[in-house]
Amino acid sequence: MRDPMSRFSATLGEWMAPLFLVAVLISVYEVVLRYAFNAPTVWVHELTVLLSAACFVVSGLYALEREEHIRVTVISDRLPRPARRAVALLNIGLAMVFLLAIVWGGWSHAWEALSNWHRTRTAFNSPTPAILKPLIVLTAAAMVLQILVNWCRNGPNR
Question: So where does this one cross the membrane (predicted)?
Fold first, then answer.
């Protein structure tokens, strides 16, 4: 049985994935309207960006939970086991520093965007900043937790 954090990460990733299909379908809708009927929309581009960006952000958490993120192992695979452990701990440490920097540096921007409901100031004027900025910060925080869960689950052997 998986832990609650891993279940959350996997479920969120699985729920977000269909939004890519929605982005494709509304893009096709835009192309048909624009080129067949000379009637472009003001909302498709922004909504496609919002959906795709949200999916990309959450996909990092999903890949981390599944431990299917890209690893460059050409050097570490040739190292002796103790050195591989050291490299794995270095990777964990660097990832944690990077993600915690996103949380620390992004929190005030995310809160401002959300509390003031920032918009794009375009013709569609979507709340993309108010949605994406907090999502990035919250996902980075969730990734920190997922790294810790993975480390506890696998131990220092990876």
Answer: 12-37, 43-64, 85-107, 131-152
CB 35 within 8 A of CB 56: no
Output the CA angle 156-157-158, nearest 5 degrees: 95
First to last CA, the chain: 20
Report the run of H or E that residue 114 belongs to, with start and end. Answer: helix 81-115
Contacts of 150 (CB under 8 A, 6+ apart): 64, 65, 67, 158
What are the residue boundaries of the structural domains of the chain, listed by start? 4-157
The confidence band for 155, taking pLDDT boundaries of 50, 70 and 90, is confident
Contact between 64 and 99 under an 8 Å Cβ cutoff? The reply is no
Residue with tokens 């893009």: 27
Q: Which long-range contacts (CB under 8 A, 24 or more apart) does 68-71 make?
A: none
56 to 16, 28, 36, 37, 51: CA distances (angstroms) = 9, 20, 31, 32, 9
Which value, in Å, is the radius of gyration of the alpha carbons in the chain? Answer: 20
Distance CA 111, CA 97 (A): 21
Write the pLDDT tens digit of every residue in 24-74. Answer: 999 999 999 999 999 999 999 999 999 999 999 999 999 999 988 887 788
- Tokens 């452990």: give the residue: 85
